[in-house]
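Why this split exists: single-chain examples teach little about how molecules sit against one another. For that reason, every record in the complexes split bundles all components of an assembly together and asks for one structure covering all of them. Below is a record exactly as it appears in the raw files.
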Amino acid sequence: MLLRALLPRYTRARCNAMPRTYMNQARPALDISGIFPPIATPFNDRERVDYDRLAENLRKYSRTPLRGFVVQGSNGEYAYLSREERVEVVRKVREVVPKEKILIAGSGCESTQATVEMTLEMAKAGAEAVLVVTPCYYKGSMNSSALVHHYTKVADASPVPVILYSVPGNTGLDLPVDAVVSLAQHPNIIGIKDSGGDITRVGLIIHKTRHLGFQVLSGSAGFLLAGYSVGAVGGVCALANVLGPQLCELERLCVNGQWQEARELQYRLIEPNAAVTRRFGIPGLKQAMEWFGYHGGYCRSPLLPLTEHERKDLRKVFTDNAWL
Amino acid sequence: MLLRALLPRYTRARCNAMPRTYMNQARPALDISGIFPPIATPFNDRERVDYDRLAENLRKYSRTPLRGFVVQGSNGEYAYLSREERVEVVRKVREVVPKEKILIAGSGCESTQATVEMTLEMAKAGAEAVLVVTPCYYKGSMNSSALVHHYTKVADASPVPVILYSVPGNTGLDLPVDAVVSLAQHPNIIGIKDSGGDITRVGLIIHKTRHLGFQVLSGSAGFLLAGYSVGAVGGVCALANVLGPQLCELERLCVNGQWQEARELQYRLIEPNAAVTRRFGIPGLKQAMEWFGYHGGYCRSPLLPLTEHERKDLRKVFTDNAWL
Amino acid sequence: MLLRALLPRYTRARCNAMPRTYMNQARPALDISGIFPPIATPFNDRERVDYDRLAENLRKYSRTPLRGFVVQGSNGEYAYLSREERVEVVRKVREVVPKEKILIAGSGCESTQATVEMTLEMAKAGAEAVLVVTPCYYKGSMNSSALVHHYTKVADASPVPVILYSVPGNTGLDLPVDAVVSLAQHPNIIGIKDSGGDITRVGLIIHKTRHLGFQVLSGSAGFLLAGYSVGAVGGVCALANVLGPQLCELERLCVNGQWQEARELQYRLIEPNAAVTRRFGIPGLKQAMEWFGYHGGYCRSPLLPLTEHERKDLRKVFTDNAWL
Amino acid sequence: MLLRALLPRYTRARCNAMPRTYMNQARPALDISGIFPPIATPFNDRERVDYDRLAENLRKYSRTPLRGFVVQGSNGEYAYLSREERVEVVRKVREVVPKEKILIAGSGCESTQATVEMTLEMAKAGAEAVLVVTPCYYKGSMNSSALVHHYTKVADASPVPVILYSVPGNTGLDLPVDAVVSLAQHPNIIGIKDSGGDITRVGLIIHKTRHLGFQVLSGSAGFLLAGYSVGAVGGVCALANVLGPQLCELERLCVNGQWQEARELQYRLIEPNAAVTRRFGIPGLKQAMEWFGYHGGYCRSPLLPLTEHERKDLRKVFTDNAWL
């Protein structure tokens, strides 16, 4: 954090973007502004976690202005890891990444009790904050009351700050705005990663919660600029696994108010972003990582590797946008 | 099974409804025709599994013509159980229920490997077949190829027959018909529980797979009669936790061709079924169980108990349809 | 009707299926049981209505046991006809078809007033009943109150009985069950064509309205048997433009209780039905009509004719199911 | 236009936001940057168009910096107007509004031929451009080929520039990006009104079409700022019927790069915008107009006036955001 304070180019911009953190002096908020990759988990050909390759990726990422790492966001294939593996990956990541990088661990489970336990373990393993996805299997019952109850229990028990996580593309469920607004008042809930892409909703959440110092992170590189334009403070973007420095540059342009240049950069990121998320999923993300000097590795089954045809289509997206 | 063979009223009907199991002599198929409750898991006030109450429920259910039990279908709150609990519950259920009742255990997990392991454990714990829900978190990548690959691996490894499970209301994903048709050819995949309620799809699956002896179970009491009318052989119905004998009576009427009487009974079941599934979810199911002499018990959080108002609305549904 | 009265095989069955029309003696109900094609409108190569070919189709259809015709259901491209054309087509159809065939005209428009006017014109043009689709452009405002108000105004003004029409595949809107139940009490609203395919909903509607003599028609051949099984009295099926006699045979089997044979026939109709509706739309329907001796003719733009590839796929569906 | 050229504050900004119109000298493009209300159509208590009140509204609007008017966007209840009324309203509007205000008329119908005819009539009635909604009733057949064919025919025939219109909330259909990109090359198709709210999609469309001078208008005030941030040139916003000058102020802040102030204003507009669109629909919009000195008037049936309760909720939204 000290280091960041020394970077003059950020100073004005960040203040500008986030006066709200200063409005609420009582809150010992963790500042989570900036770009975070939800890091992919490389597996070997026997589908075991390849810790060495993971470490190599992290060392490379750590030399860039990425603000930190989200371990076990959706792109980390967390749904395919055992409870033990989830914790172990966080522990290993903490060993590798430098202190000044913020480590956020996904600790969401379906039941409240399991989420509480996982949260405690993640904190012990070195996470500075936890990202808690909405439980979703019984989506018909996951109304605002149930979700507020769930997150409140988790935040009450958590030794580290909690970040809400709404990702309807995976969960089939939007965390309702009224629930977000209510939860933003909890002293241990500091922000939300919103991956839905509804920028009106993002703006409304910020409007209703900024007086509390609540921080909103865009959950996808496709609307990173738009997110900044309405007051988001950063992004957790799958594409940052592939084009991390470029996303940090986009962040810099946005927080510095260089919107024209920001727009040019944003345009070129939309299709690559869609390609490594909605269109080709994690197998696409991991393939693209290989092209950019990182280890994507194998996926766990039932995720299948790209077909030759898909690989060509994916590559074309990156060449068409002048990244390859 | 012996007992059932003695019931003359079923003999003709079952033959009639399922000539296909005889068409494929090579297949040592488990006959899964009949009504199965996906049993609820009663918890105590500390959210621990209440094995005594579970056993009491099962003893009562076992005195009815229910064909068997699905342990850890969606209504068993399986998503809220740890891996160890999932196996333990199956083991305990096996101890309690009589031999002639078929025990089907839900063994689906997100990753293929975890599903294989859970399947092996479920078989060891006494399951005669496993019900495997579609993995769904990365739904954008769960195309037919991925799902066929997943289920094939599981069925190859499983010591007991595998039943597919498509429940879009929870997973946001329909197992595509072409994948079902392809998987029906696997000698260890014997059927599907389809909870989507699209009766045209149910008919098409039966049309395309019945020459293989593939068995289709309706996944909800709301379309049980319609399912029989197009050739389904039974049902796995949440409502059977509450009105088990009545669903068995509906089965009897359908397989005996007493459609007029069947229809009268079916009509009265639609709203109660909707109430304990879509409308009030598992908390509604458990509340209704209490009214009918079973132990519903507590739910695990984040599921909340019904409000007083919801409870009244639920009760009205049962009284309006002359069940209370 | 005379002809039908002579067919003893229908007598018992119809009574059986529809005792409700006798329960409500005050109601001078039009009996709409049976199979109706929502007739296609053949256009010439300049996209003008080809009345000669339409008449030829109708003469052929009229020699089959089809109960009557729906003119300007969705498959009649009514959305592409001017108000004048809509009325003119009905007038011409009435001239051609024999008296004993029931003529139902689609008179739905977006505004209530336009629907009332169109209804009056349709009745004058010879329609014995009108089919009124849900207004849908402002779907966010089309709640039960608005829809009940709309249909009540139309039914109050209509000189002929009104049939509700819910077709979410086109309108993006389900006519809510509570609105249907409320409207079923209007003496001039005699039934509903439900094309949604949710058989549980169909059953519930029948359960809640049959004491009023309200008649439910399945809106697609894909669930015609299932519809009969839960108490529907017939169907308005696009596929009846192509395989009319076959659908009448399916009707006969269902009302006579020959479910085993009915099932065999139903199975073979599911894919052809999907092909001429969801999959290839009206262009597919019109192409298939040509193969079966009817005039499909051109579509109006923006509907495009099938590509060569699509035509082959469509044909394969009919040959695979042994219809060609 | 002259007037605008005199406003120095706009000059730099507009150039900045739209260098592309200068990149394509061959194109005699109509510059449609700025804020347009899709004007509501006031009806009297007999549901007739109230031309006097409409004229009064327009005279008031014309004294504000609104760039022009969209007559018969969705909020004009165009779906409830006869063909004759649609043209007549445009004619009357043209008589009232000053020359420097751009008049855009909605001319979309379901069939291509009807749309062409309506387009010709709208141009004759004084429209300087037409807004053409996607045909949508046969949405299953409205793929890119069909839509490109439709719009090409319309644009070929139109004497005035054509603006595409994608409004999935009403039509259930998104005009696919590939179709937009293809159509942007037509010399007579100058832009799109996109009401879907998917800002990533908006950015992608701009990325792929700006070299052609194609202009994107945000279709809702909820994401107006975000739209500007990614390069949209204006907005067609229902809320401009109520808070027109305020939306023009938001425009000014955005094009001048005063993002901080813009954001503050945008925040206060999100809920009022949602209230007069998604939440309370056109009845809500018309009610709010009355509070702000305009004539909302009656709606046509089946739209119902707000209940007393809804009216209170609507008012609260405006007071909570300090507009009343």
